[in-house]
Amino acid sequence: MGMNSKVRILTGITTTGTPHLGNYVGAIRPAIAASGKPDAESFYFLADYHALVKCDDPARVQRSTLEIAASWLACGLDPKKVYFYRQSDIPEIPELTWLLTCVTAKGLLNRAHAYKATVDANRAAGEDADAGITAGLYMYPVLMAADILIFNAHKVPVGRDQIQHIEMARDIGQRFNHIYGGDFFALPEAVIEENVATLPGLDGRKMSKSYNNTIPLWLPAKELRKAILGIVTNSLAPGEAKNPDDSNIFSIYQAFASADETAAMRQAFADGIGWGDAKQKLFERIDAELAPMREQYDTLVARPERIEEALRAGALRARGLATPLLAQLRHAAGLRDLTLGAQEKTKKEHAKKWSQDAIKQFRNSDGTFGFKLVAGVPSKRTIFESIGFKDARACGEAIAFLRRAYRDEHALAIRGSGHEWELVLLRDGQVIGSNRATTEDRLKGVRILIHQICEGLEED
Ligand code: TRP
Fold it and tell me: Does residue 290 sit within a domain?
């Protein structure tokens, strides 16, 4: 939907393992560097629903979620600048998964590499084709499509093994758009980072959990050093010239060092640096980069409540985008309020309904000026009203304030207790607009609609 002109970048991390140096160099570091760009909006999430497909050990899923979240935060991800959340905190994702499941061809899923590889392995072993295959593995691409489509992501940075999944997400999104006659979803593209290093692991193959050759990212310095000493090398002795371009030690060094440092190391290889010395230098270089973040990481892991809070806040913001889109999708598919007239069934009429979102100014009978927010969806109604202002200008300034501050939960705040709750717009501690309800949840829904209205207006 054309609500936003920024490029949306989204990626998920499956929460089944402990972050290692390869994850840091290949995913965490480049993603955090990219997240500062002003023309992009980034979404990074912990794919814990996906983790369940691969792992049925609850303690491991929980621990991995904690470790991965702490790693991203310790490495400098600013959760206020990006959307950083846990997949299972967004109920719109599994709900969309079902809507998408119903437009996805079974044949498309039959062709998924991961599923096919397991079937082939079963056949080769003389077993039943579907032995040990859960419906979760089979449905994996649809869940992943929902992750991407619910936020209308344009670019999805992934490894090569995931390209097919992004193509499937396009396919599924397009099918839904076609069947229900709307531009509900942007069609995502995979981004393969060509100039991001893939690190060799301890044995020289690509560092990967599946090869069991990783160096965990947050080893204490002593153990990190020990792990680095264990990287395989050839048997050339100190004093013999070594080829940096065929050395794991050099490749890893390069991924951490500046151009000057790399050139100096290249020279040291030519000059016959011993493997022990090269490994010591490699350890020192990596440790220099990681040590300050390691301290952060340890602090975060020791106090999980801070991470929990950041993730929940992230999910709330993300749902501000997901909830209105899902409402629209439900409507499109016919999961509707029964009091809505059948005349609303065409796409055009539906679009008109959304375009009824507005901020309206009016004059009160006592001569003061006010504004109200009108939501077109799910049915046209006033969802928020201001106090009276002495003139139109003061009223305009209050609207401008709302449009600047609506994302700030201190400005557009929910407060109350028991059965009395209010959503208030606070400027300099003064209430300049409000809505009341009997539950906090209701007002959270209202706040999401306000976000939607304000975001829709940002375009003009
Ligand atoms: N399947 C991805 C992986 O294993 C993780 C993932 C889940 C993901 N949902 C996603 C990646 C959405 C990108 C977008 O690496």
Answer: no
In a shared domain, residues 243 and 389: no
156 pocket-lining for ligand 1 (C-beta < 6 Å): yes
What's the CA-to-centroid distance between 329 and ligand 1, angstroms? 23
User: Is 290:145 a contact under the CB 8 Å cutoff?
Assistant: no
pLDDT digits (tens, 9 = 90+) for 398-453: 999 999 998 888 999 999 998 899 999 999 999 999 999 888 878 887 887 887 78
Q: Which two tokens stand for residue 226?
A: 């020990």
- Residue ranges of the alpha helices (H) in 304-365? 304-333, 347-354
Distance of alpha carbon 265 from alpha carbon 281, whole angstroms: 9
Q: What is the pTM of this model?
A: 0.74
Does residue 285 fall inside a structural domain? no
Whether residues 22 and 54 fall in one domain: yes
- Exposure b/e, 331-352, CB count within 10 A at least 16 = b: bbbeeeeeeeeeeeeeeeebee
Q: Does residue 67 sit in the same domain as residue 169?
A: yes
Instruction: Let me know whether 454 and 399 are in one domain.
Output: yes
How far is the centre of ligand 1, averaged over its atoms, from the C-alpha of 15 (Å)?
10
CA proximity to 45, closest of 295, 300, 289, 322:
322
Q: What's the pLDDT at 460?
A: 45
Between the CA of 46 and the centroid of ligand 1 the distance, in Å, is: 9
Instruction: Report which protein residue has its CA nearest ligand 1's atom 8.
Output: 12
Same domain, 191 and 264: no
Range(s) of the domain holding residue 156: 7-197+302-333
Provide the CATH number for the domain around residue 237: 1.10.240.10
Q: How many domains does the chain have?
A: 3
Relative to the CA of 50, which ligand 1 atom is closest?
7
- To test ligand 1's pocket by mutation, which of 165, 167, 208 has the most ligand atoms within 8 angstroms of CB? 165
The Cα–Cα gap between 424 and 406 comes to 11
| Six token digits for residue 228 | 């680095």
Q: Hey, how many other C-beta atoms are within 10 angstroms of the C-beta on 77? A: 20
